[in-house]
Write a structure and sequence with these properties.
The protein is of the alpha/beta class. Helix content is 54%, strand content 11%. It has helices at 19-37, 49-57, 73-83, 94-98, 104-110, 123-135, 161-176, 201-211, 222-242, 250-270, 278-293, 301-321, 327-330, 334-349, 374-379, 381-400, and strands at 40-47, 61-66, 89-93, 113-116, 140-141, 182-193, 358-364, 368-369.
Length: 401
């Protein structure tokens, strides 16, 4: 995953969709990003495409919620937007707009992309998403996982923001536009290599091993070699932050290490340990730290040093979260080996290239009619949001497995 700056003031970027500009942007996305950078040779709709188009043509409000396992995900969906003549709009992390200066932001906006501050109370982005869902002119895409964890066959816990927005919009639509329905479309994107890239694995592992001053561990099979390298890097990070290595199984060490990093920062900034999954707690901490950094035009050097050290620890915690201990051993396929190596290369070298042709299969799961959930929303809004989020997770995970 990418490391982004946390110390820049946020500026909301609204969508400025242009049908003419979008066509050009789709073409550029297809040629330079989908095919050349991400090496996608084919995009297949496995199921649900006809139903999606039918609901769109009937004028219903649509929120598409895909998993987010690959940097290519938006480009795969832009390809479908062009192919199906479906003017998708996207909510995207603010960092995407800030990562590079120049034309990036206006180009994204012309394609119907708008920004969101994931760690802040971004009311402008929320209002924009609500308006899109209420107007039902453009289907909206939100990635409720939030981060890209490079887990092509495993869904991480979803943020409840997507369900919250959609249910709120459905409530307003029912009041003002009784002929319109609001739907969430859980969507699964799954990548597979077309080329046999297994011959690249030994050389890539040798490069990673050399980075920690090891000789190539050629006496081991690929999976054992990956785990040996991973445990070595984990030990190095444990020594860096804890001054010791942890006991227990790999899964236990990963969870204990994450918890240590996160809970120590929570004590520092909140004076208490929070509940919830680790990504949710990290988002809360990042939001708190960013508010401290931006509270003054010139925060003191001591404050900045403290905040940056905290952000580094939280970044490591999220990196650790993207490595489920037994994920590769459960199914040591070429695709899982490739995505694990890709993740190591991205985390360690901050750069990684896709080395073979791939295909992506997109499944639009059974739509969730939110008009059927408004009674539940009225009785217990928190429970209604949780139930819808759980249903989205179950639908996507069933396809990925």
């Amino acid at each position: 995953m990418n490391r982004f700056q946390e110390d820049t003031p946020y500026e909301f970027h609204p969508p400025q969709y242009s049908k003419l500009c979008a066509r050009l942007i789709y073409a550029v996305s297809d040629f330079f990003f989908l095919r050349r950078k991400h090496r996608i040779a084919g995009v297949k709709i496995a199921a649900g495409g006809d139903e999606l188009i039918r609901l769109y043509k009937q004028g219903h409000s649509l929120l598409i919620t895909p998993n987010h396992s690959d940097h290519c995900d938006p480009h795969a969906l832009l390809h479908l937007s062009k192919r199906l003549k479906l003017p998708l709009h996207f909510m995207a992390a603010r960092e995407i707009f800030e990562k590079e200066k120049g034309l990036r932001a206006p180009i994204l906006q012309k394609a119907g992309v708008f920004s969101v501050d994931r760690e802040g109370a971004d009311l402008k982005s929320i209002k924009q998403a609500m308006k899109l869902l209420y107007d039902a002119t453009y289907p909206l895409v939100m990635f409720p996982e939030g981060e890209i964890y490079h887990l092509n066959e495993k869904l991480t816990p979803l943020n409840e923001g997507a369900a919250t927005l959609a249910l709120r919009a459905a409530k307003k639509v029912k009041k003002d536009k009784p002929e319109t329905r609001c739907y969430i479309i859980p969507t699964a994107l799954r990548y597979s290599y077309i080329d046999d890239i297994s011959t690249t694995f030994p050389e890539r592992l040798a490069r990673l091993e050399a980075h920690i001053l090891w000789a190539p561990q050629n006496h081991l099979d690929i999976v054992s070699r990956i785990y040996k390298f991973g445990e070595a890097v984990l030990s190095l990070k444990e020594k860096e932050f804890l001054n010791r290595t942890l006991d227990g199984s790999l899964d236990e060490r990963l969870n204990t290490f994450r918890e240590h990093l996160i809970s120590n920062e929570e004590k520092k900034y909140f004076a208490e340990i929070k509940t919830g999954n680790h990504p949710t707690r990290v988002r809360m901490l990042r939001g708190k730290i960013r508010s401290i950094i931006l509270a003054s035009e010139t925060p003191g050097e001591e404050t900045m040093t403290k905040c940056r050290a905290s952000l580094d620890k939280l970044y490591v915690a999220i990196q650790l979260y993207s490595y489920p201990g037994q994920y590769l051993r459960e199914k040591p396929s070429m695709d899982r080996i490739a995505e694990t190596l890709h993740k190591f290369e991205e985390d360690i070298f901050e750069d990684s290239k896709i080395l073979g042709q791939r295909s992506v299969e997109i499944t639009f799961c059974k739509p969730i009619n939110l008009m059927d959930r408004l009674d539940d929303l009225q009785k217990d809004s928190k429970r209604a949001v949780s139930d819808v989020t759980t249903e989205i997770e179950a639908a996507i995970q069933a396809v990925l497995q």
